[in-house]
Amino acid sequence: MSFKQVILVRQDLKLPKGKLAAQAAHASVEAVLKSDPKDVKTWRAEGMAKIVLKVKDEKELVALFQKAKDENLVSSLITDAGRTVIAPGTRTCAAIGPSDEEDIDLITGKLALL
Asked: What pTM value is reported for the model?
């Protein structure tokens, strides 16, 4: 079993690179903080694989996040505070894992890399 984390980023928002990186980091950290420490330890020992993937819009983002939750995968959905370039309450990205790579791929395997 290999562990990884995927980070899903909305493409319709056309976020500046710095904002996108910050939002992806928020998602990653939030998911790790929710994770079982044993899973985090395993993931860290394997190199902490993180894959950033594109989603079309909020609808696709929320659907995949919900699917991950339904499959009992650790996940986080990030809602922006609206202090910079986007409106408060905008859902920007999500992270799934760290979890078993095969379980995550069942949900996100068809998405394109960012």
From this structure: 0.96
